[in-house]
Amino acid sequence: STWQKTFIEERWGVPDRRVVFSPFMLDDRFFSETNLPTSNLQPPTSKIICAVGLERRDYPTLMQAVRDLDVQVIIAAASPWSKQSDSTARAEVPANVTVKKFTQYELRQLYADSAFMVMPLFNVNFQAGVTAILEAMAMERAVICSRTPGQTDVILDGENGLYVQPEDAAALRQAIVSLLNNPAEAARLGRNGRKLIEQQMNLDHYVKRLQQVVEEVTSNE
Questions:
Q1: CA 221 to chain centre
Q2: CA nearest neighbour of 136 among 174, 95, 190
Q3: How confident is the model over 49-59, as pLDDT tens digits?
Q4: Which phi and psi (to 5°) does residue 121 adopt?
Q5: What gap in Å lies between CA 209 and CA 219, rounded to an integer?
Q6: Which residue in 44, 54, 99, 128 is a FRET match for 78, CA 20 to 30 A apart?
Q7: What is the SS3 assignment for the chain?
Q8: 113-159, pLDDT tens digit by residue?
């Protein structure tokens, strides 16, 4: 957040005191295991992991990493706002990988059906993938994420997720196998992710922070 405030001050000439940091947030009532309705999706018959979104997603590296692993990988390659092309389109999709689009309700079920979520990113300097990361965490799922300059404000390595170097299929495969072989650790990371959402990054906290900023500004007028 300090880096972001400094960047804004240098780029737009806005004094630091006028820059308010507000973390990303999501509706943790919708994205919650306790809010799952009876689903039309078939229950998993084998281990499942998922990857979600389009913006700067490095799905070719993910597909290389999971080739021939004993796990079903479901890639939800869609986004309501990203203009990026689907990086799976020109790649050879392994037999254990499925690429499709989901509704929000189906996506929530996908998180629930998955052992954890993988966020493979190209090396970018902004928060690509943060929405899906928060959604997975809210569903108590661990996240394996590429360690990019922009993706730094949500995942704490070893506490609620794992980082790997971008575009490193061997390192990504190692992290995936590690969590597949240690479901208790994946569950611990997932619980910590949900705790972060509840304590800092849901809509209730966002509204309270926004209210505080508005009250401070209006009281100084």
A1: 39
A2: 190
A3: 999 998 889 99
A4: -125, 145
A5: 15
A6: 44
A7: CHHHHHHHHHHHCCCHHHCCCCCCCECCCCCCHHHCCCCCCCCCCCCEEEEECCCCECHHHHHHHHCCCCCEEEEECCCCCCCCCCCCCCCCCCCCEEEECCCHHHHHHHHHHCCCEEECECCCCCCCCHHHHHHHHHCCCCEEEECCCCCCCCCCECCCEEEECCCCHHHHHHHHHHHHCCHHHHHHHHHHHHHHHHHHCEHHHHHHHHHHHHHHHHHCC
A8: 999 999 999 998 877 889 999 999 999 999 999 999 888 778 999 99
Task: Give the span between the Cα atoms of 24 and 44, in whole angstroms.
Answer: 31
Residue entry with tokens 């360690």: 147
Q: Which two tokens stand for residue 78?
A: 């869609």
